[in-house]
UniProtKB/TrEMBL annotation:
Name of the protein this chain belongs to: Ras-related protein Rab-24
Subcellular location: Cytoplasm, Cytoskeleton, Spindle; Cytoplasm, Cytosol; Cytoplasm, Perinuclear region; Cytoplasmic vesicle, Autophagosome membrane
Gene3D superfamilies: P-loop containing nucleotide triphosphate hydrolases
UniProt entry keywords in alphabetical sequence: Autophagy, Cytoplasm, Cytoplasmic vesicle, Cytoskeleton, GTP-binding, Hydrolase, Lipoprotein, Magnesium, Membrane, Metal-binding, Nucleotide-binding, Phosphoprotein, Prenylation, Protein transport, Transport
Lipoprotein keyword on record: yes
Organism from which the protein derives: Amphimedon queenslandica
CC cofactor: Mg(2+)
SMART domains tied to this protein: RAB (SM00175), RAN (SM00176), RAS (SM00173), RHO (SM00174)
Gene Ontology terms: cellular component: autophagosome membrane; cytoplasmic vesicle; cytosol; perinuclear region of cytoplasm; spindle
One of the Pfam families matching this protein, by short name: Ras
Family assignment from sequence similarity: Belongs to the small GTPase superfamily. Rab family.
Superkingdom of origin organism: Eukaryota
Molecular function per GO: G protein activity; GTP binding; metal ion binding
PANTHER family according to UniProt: PTHR47978
Amino acid sequence: MAGKVDLKVVLLGKEYGGKTSLVERYIHGKFNAQAPYQSTIGAAFGAKKVTVNGESVTLGIWDTAGSERYESMSRIYYRGAKSAIVCFDLTDPSSFERAKFWVNELKQTEEDCVIYLCGTKYDLVEDNKKARKVDASSAKEYADEISAKYVETSAKTGYNIDYLFMMIAEDFVNVTRNKVQANKDEDSSVALRLEQPPMNREKCKC
């Protein structure tokens, strides 16, 4: 596991919504269909280093408990997160409503946190359209409404897992670079104003 974390990413959503499987697939490349994951208590942490345009970025990933009884505990873990993956199960409409709850929480407490809406268990709806209980267009419309990007994933097949986390890392790097450039431009502007000689204002002799 890497030491220094550049970007804190938190996963939020209803229990059994696919968060832990998603993290396991991304960090360890594993998916165990024979032994379903137990409900997370508190939070689990993992880290992974990626390279974005030649720049190394270490993601610190917090998988939070989805159970409502651990709600207050989850708030502790998402504090200070720069990115949040709000997950819902594509086969469970109640998990989509729960996702909206977490989005509202983030909007109120972590204004600078970039939100990514993630529909999980895509493999279950890929071949069986009747299994899908959350329409993709509705989810995309909601994502647009909250200024979030929407991705559908499958921890079982790995579909869009790497894509999701790479997108998060790329967005982070781009935002960081833009901030650095903006600060440089501001510093240059200030330096230019300081270098300019004061105007020679002679009193008018009328």
